Amino acid sequence: MFCPLYNTLLGGDERRVDSRTIYVGHRPCPATEAFIPPKFCDNRIVSSKYTVWNFLPKNLFEQFRRIANFYFLIIFLVQVIVDTPTSPVTSGLPLFFVITVTAIKQGYEDWLRHKADNEVNKYLVTVLENGQKIRTESEKIKVGDVVEVKEDETFPCDLILLQSSRDDDTCFVTTASLDGESNHKTHYTVPDTEKDLESLNATIECEQPQPDLYKFVGRMHIYKKDQEPAVRSLGPENLLLKGATLKNTQKICGVAVYTGMETKMALNYQGKSQKRSAVEKSINAFLLVYLCILVSKALVCTTLKYVWQSEPGQDEPWYNQKTQREKDTNLYLKMFTDFLSFMVLFNFIIPVSMYVTVEMQKFLGSFFITWDKDFFDPEIQEGALVNTSDLNEELGQVEYVFTDKTGTLTQNNMEFIECCIDGHPRALCSVLDILIHIVLYDQEKEELFLRALCLCHTVQVKESPGPGQGQADGLMDQVDGLGLGGEVLRPEEQRGFIASSPDEVALVKGAMRYGFTFLGLESKNMKILNRNNDVEMYELLHVLNFDPVRRRMSVIVRSKSGDTLLFCKGADSSIFPRVRPEEVDRIRMHVERNATEGYRTLCVAYKQLSAEEYAQADAGLREARLALQDREEKLMAVYNQVETGMSLIGATAVEDRLQEEAAETMEALQGAGMKVWVLTGDKMETAKSTCYACRLFQRNTELLELTVRTLEDGGRKREERLHELLLDYHKKAVQDAPPVKAGVTRSVCRLWSTANQDYGFIIDGATLSMVLNSSHDSNSSRYKSLFLQICQNCTAVLCCRMAPLQKAQIVKMVKNSKGGPITLSIGDGANDVSMILEAHVGIGIKGKEGRQAVRNSDYAIPKLKHLKKLLLAHGHLYYVRIAHLVQYFFYKNLCFILPQFLYQFFCGYSQQPLYDAAYLTMYNICFTSMPILAYSLLEQHICIEVLLDNATLYREIAKNAMLRWRPFFYWTVLGVFHGLLFFFGVRYLFSNPALQDNGQVFGNWSYGTIVFTVLVFTVTLKLALDTRHWTWINHFVIWGSLAFYVFFSFFWGGIIWPFLRQQRLYFVFANMLSSVSAWLVIILLILLSLLPDILLVVFRKPRGPNARQVGLTHSYPQTLRHSHGWTRHQTLSTALFSSLSLSLSLSLSLSLSLSLSLPLSLSLSLSLSLSLSPVSSSIPP
Amino acid sequence: MMASSYNAKDEDGHITVSGPGGGTLKNKKPDNTAFKQQRLPAWQPILTAGTVLPAFFIIGLIFIPIGIGLYVTSNNIKELEIDYTGVDMSSPCFNCSQNFSWNSTRPCTCTIPFYLEQAFESNVFMYYGLSNFYQNHRRYVKSRDDSQLNGDIEALLNPSKECEPYARNENKPIAPCGAIANSMFNDTLELFYIDPNGTKIQIPLMKKGIAWWTDKHVKFRNPGGNNPNLTAVFQGTTKPVNWRKPVYELDTDSENNGFINEDFIVWMRTAALPTFRKLYRIIQKKNSMIPTLPRGNYTLEVVYNYPVGSFEGRKRMILSTISWMGGKNPFLGIAYITVGSICFFLGVVLLIIHHKYGNRNNSADITN
Fold it and tell me: Which of A234, A268, A302 represents a domain boundary (last residue)?
């Protein structure tokens, strides 16, 4: 039933590719008239981007493609071309610095790539050419070459295995460097190839290169003298991938099919699409605002300049004549260049360094995740892995968690618990073992069932570890041993099994307990040791592989007696329709009971094939396997045809234990306001019980079911019933529910009214596809939105029976819903990759199902329980850090540039900079960059333990709380307030520039230096005020950069610099410090600027300690009381404070306007009241 | 396959950071160091009413006295300002201001009588003030050559391009070049005390010590080192267009001549705002018994050379005493008193809030 959906979704990806023809050993074959050696790319791997010659232009071009860099380049060019107030050095130097650092970094990485490429390309390999072994460099391999590879060597290109030194025509490889799976995989030679490769005359037809590591379609034509050419199908099991390593096999020979950049490995290293975090979007929005501010500032100044100049005597007084060239310039051109000049003068409002700092913060910050020892799992000896550091802060913003069940919520450590043979349950338990013989039932049936378990699988027996085998095997032993839950293993049970699915291993081991031991596969014969210690042999004819759409697998074997048997095992839903209905009822009950208990159930069926039936099936399968096009579909059709009319033998129950702390983790996530959706391919009952076990569903949770079963209850058409149910549930969950807002209010609501019903929603894959692909087009979108609304109002949603692509579809649907919530997907298997890639943040679990999930994830953690710390502690902290970083950067540049803007009103709009060029350049690079970087790496406004203990704290930063327009407005107003204060404070001081006790006067550079000193100190101390976590690094960096500023100023002003045209700052700083008034005004202005923040801090105070108390007291009523008391306290202080701030600003403006002229007091009172107002609004009622 | 770890995904060419480890498997337990585990010992200050309250009171208690001190100091400074622009018909300088021409050879002098109501006890500083004069105009500020002023011979003969259009005159380099030097203030101010019996006593004006020490001794230097013959040193240069005499004739005292003339240095320090004052002369106190400027009648004699009419500027002569905080400026005192009072007031309000609600809340927490 998933097929149509699956195919339509896949349709886009599966591009029809032409096939390529390869002549093995470049020998022309008789079938083709003329041998035209086809041209393929050589086997050189080029991962490097640059060569020595094109490095500079190409790298520069790529760097300036970044919009920010381009902007700064433009500013720089304007400065070079137009006569601008600041020298090009001021913006050129930082830009040059950034560009150089980036170029060096990229150059170094490219050098490493060159080195790695060379290592790979110059690697010596053996090529068989005309019967001779020739050692040659790897890069010289051409498509069609026959290559010999020895044990422990890596394959130099993608090879089709022709010959193996092993007797059974197999070889073992590990693909650890490709996908991280360290187990040995078996690959097969092409059947019927001659042992003598020299005389082999064959062509290979295969698809064009495609990146999927696990897909390969091709066929081989073997031409023998005087015979019809034989055709053999080629699949992934014949293909040896470049990068994989040969193991356990002395040597193999293979023919190169894909080389160089066309190998699957190379194709796989094309980067993933970059995910961008929400913070970045906020930055861009803020940037736009600041660009507007910048342009409007420049426009205002240009306009005023020309208005001002139009008055007589202002434009060109006698003391300040223009040069002839200036006089000759066209008026409009002059206006334009003036505009550009102002842009240049104010361009520091958007700093280059912000981008650098943000990148540094993300890069360095992500180290704390990899370093965290709490993420270290002793079992697999690994910690967390960060694949993308761009998304650190997104971890603090997650609203929806989509989790896989098997391997994620559960351990994927399967244990055979029970089987039910023909309706009789059998528990695997030592006590019951004795009873087996007492219970009277069909002995024959039981043995058939156990044989089925032994035969119907793809498990391999691991060879006893030889001397040459390495660590990987040790690891496997460990993992496999765990499957038996630490019981003492009997010698024969130490046999290791390797399989892609742990269920199969559990089943085979289960059968072993009952006396049927699978001994392994030997040249197409499966050997089974039965209860009587006899070895039974079965010839393996066909394996009908498992796939998640069919949800079953089968084998066709021929027994010694010559019977052809088909054994099939699979999910009940896929087996029941294919067996005789009268057999179903007996078993269904048991299956359902087992499923409710949380076991994974599988049904086993068999069928005896008659000779004709087999012949038909065999032909069909062979034909389908040889198809180059639509092979999957054709195979599927044959499978479906063969797997019919079977008889049910029994069912198995396998327990999959919950992950450690799964329930606690889920509870914490829900407490943090995240909605957890479980997306699983498993049965509904199994999944439901897992959800209960994980406490995703509570006892009082009302479950809203939308599954095939509920749809069929009504007895009407499914679709009508579906719509009816949807409307019904919508009424229940959405309309009748009290209107709640997201975030804190919701938590309070949940705490207050226990009457408020929690809803859980269950849907299965079939129903989901009905909802999403409703037949009435007009209704389709409506039902989809109804569905979405219901889901969003439920505390937990369970989607079972999901195909991998449906998982991604659900994630996409939520991701694109209103408000664009941040989604997180977590999973461990290949079937989770699509949803991991789809979600904003993808998390891979380093589980048992290989490494695909980890490879495609943004972050990988060893266990589910680590998710809690990753989100609640790391995510929270990173978000707060980066949000503060961004806001602070905009703020500090606003109050840096605002005085310069205001100064234009006092210098005839002549673009005279207020600060010296050195200060303009160094402000963002040296004086104020380090403290914020240290802050953004080390800050813990709430310590990690409290964050972990108290999940509700996560809600405080939900929905990008610190980067919304309101906080941005607050920071902007603060910046404006500070800028005004700095400028006008000093301006009123300079109403009498005689500031020294010797009567001497200060000039414009002293003015700028005083403003700048206040600025640097205020901005740094403002950060110090915000710092809640003072490590020695913070101390060092904050006080250090202030000291550096003072030191630099002395140094810069202490020498007549020979390369400077003007010695503007010569002894200006020292002279400033000799003036008491300057000291006094600096202290005053710093203090006054920080006053609003100190006040804010005091009034925000209850948050910190209160949070700590909540963290200590877990019990519910206390939490309630706390929050109650806290709320009351807040309301009171809010009311008081708002009235206070009003009276304050009034009194301030009054007292100031008495003595000072109007603008200062106005601006003071205005900005004070403005900057205080957010307090009253930011506190929740 | 080494290639894989460096073939990361920085396509867009910027500092995209592939995460640490970049896909390699970490088979090592992370170090258990305080830094890596984010457990560095840290001071975690929590600003509470308890800690901030005293701070507010302390700030209030420190700032208010300072403010009062500043205010009193500023009020004790005696200052007298005389506008001698001569815009009004009644003004003694009206004629001079109206008949101004750059080419007149005969200086125009005007005399302004004034009465000093309070004696100036300590050293008196004489300033000239200009209004609506944009010394901080960009074109003006940059129109100088500090290398030339620092005595660099090369720059003396080849003034910087920044000095345009005041770099050369009739193909000779201008020394000192630039708009600032060219527009140097050249009024001469003299002060006479009319003692009660009518005699006019000239008050001695000191012209040393008006410029920054570092400017006078380091930043400004005459070319040719210590060559006393400045005429020879400045050979080949020409005076600024608006000057009446060349730079080496600014003063007879060789220590105050040429580029190191203090009037010149003071002028070269461009003012921050369009209304400014610059130190002109110092009247030193001679005798502790007699005030520097006793109460009585004075006249200010101005040789009126400096035109300000064209840009509606004003010229002022300011007599002022100086305190430790500089000249008269009530701003600082008032600001300090205001901020101190605000802090004190906030302290009181916070105390009330803290006392009334803070305690109750705390006790509620404890009992529950």
Answer: A268
